[in-house]
Amino acid sequence: MSVEPPKISDFCAVGVNHWEASIDVRERFSLKEAQKKELIEGAKREGMDSLFVVSTCNRTEIFAQNVSAQELIRLLVTYSRASLEEFHNYGFEKEGQRAVEHLFQVTVGLDSQILGDVQVVNQVKEGYELASELDAVDGELHRLMQHVFRAHKRSRNETSLGEGAATTAYAAVKFAVETFDNLRDKNILLVGTGKIGKVTCKNLINLGAKKVTLINRTRDRAEFVAGRFDLDVADMEELPQKIAESDLIIVATGAKEPIIELDDMKPSILNPSFKVMVDLSVPRNIDPEIGDLDFVDLANMDFLTDVTDEAYRKREENIPLVKKIIDDELTDYKNWLSKQKVVPTIKALTSKFDAIREDEFDFFKNKISDTDKEKVENLTRRIVNKIAAYSIEHLRDHHESEQVTKVVNDMFKLETKADDE
Known about the structure:
Blueprint: E1 11-17, H1 23-29, H2 33-45, E2 51-55, E3 59-65, H3 69-79, H4 84-90, E4 92-95, H5 97-108, H6 120-133, H7 139-158, H8 168-180, E5 187-191, H9 195-206, E6 211-215, H10 219-229, E7 232-234, H11 239-245, E8 248-251, H12 266-270, E9 275-279, E10 296-299, H13 310-316, H14 319-339, H15 343-364, H16 370-397, H17 402-411, H18 417-420
Parallel strand pairs: 5-6, 5-8, 6-7, 8-9, 9-10
Antiparallel strand pairs: 1-3, 1-4, 2-3
Helix pairs in contact: 2-3, 5-7, 5-14, 7-14, 8-9, 15-16
């Protein structure tokens, strides 16, 4: 039975994202590192051996090769806290070239809530690298990711898509600036000093914030970030009082449950003053009920946008250029994929030529002096490689033609692995 060569139609993507699913739905589909690992290991046990998962604030998606959409949907529902009905209401499934194009668009930031998001490529890399570590990425998918990451790099080098601080952290700070006009005299509390927290901190300083306090579960990490910007640090136990003293509270942690609950607002309720609270986490880290308090303006990921920003309009002008880069890289990948059809024939041809050479060498080597054997072996190998090179070049140049491949197979009576299987 022959094995079908790899095709662009072998790829599939399913998931939920910010375009259709609100934050409460995305929370239920969200997967932490351990859950992503469990999903991949579960998939491998079922014979699905080429896939990876991307789970961020705005999306949870699985991208796979040689797996049906239905199998991926079942995996996503099994390992998340969401239901099949929720997927059918809010999810998407893309197959073949549409799935591959989607992966390119996600990675370069065209599919992001913040156009040109500079963080999403790292989130894609993390998902891909986790799957690679678990030996869950085949050669064709490895090759595709090289083109995907090259498209991202080119989009940054050849266009202005990544300019203008295109991050959700920047959008959060802009949201606060639009509310307060300026941040110079505002008391600001930042909870969480991970990747997003550090970027948020830098954005706050760049936009004029002077009075910023950092809180993190691990105080050492908060002190390290505070030291870079000369900021204050408080302990987690001080959270309710620090909230009461603050005008702007931004939370960005990886916690599965809310960091700020209604009980933490008691000192603020006793002495209410207007506050903007921004939750940059999925699952949410600020209890949504806090948004019902009269003196609180609560924003989560669904509130953040940059469409009114001048930097957005400049990035938007680059969309056609970035799409052209994606088209270029996708075309290159499809050409490479097409050439894989002749790989079994090339391997069989080189193996056949080398077998003939070795048979002839074995026949004559007893008639050759020991000092000449190595020279003769090198000479025969060079001759065979040069002869094979013409056939290999012809096969690659005509990789779309099944007739050319058949002629070479018949001419040299080749037995390819694809035929054996």
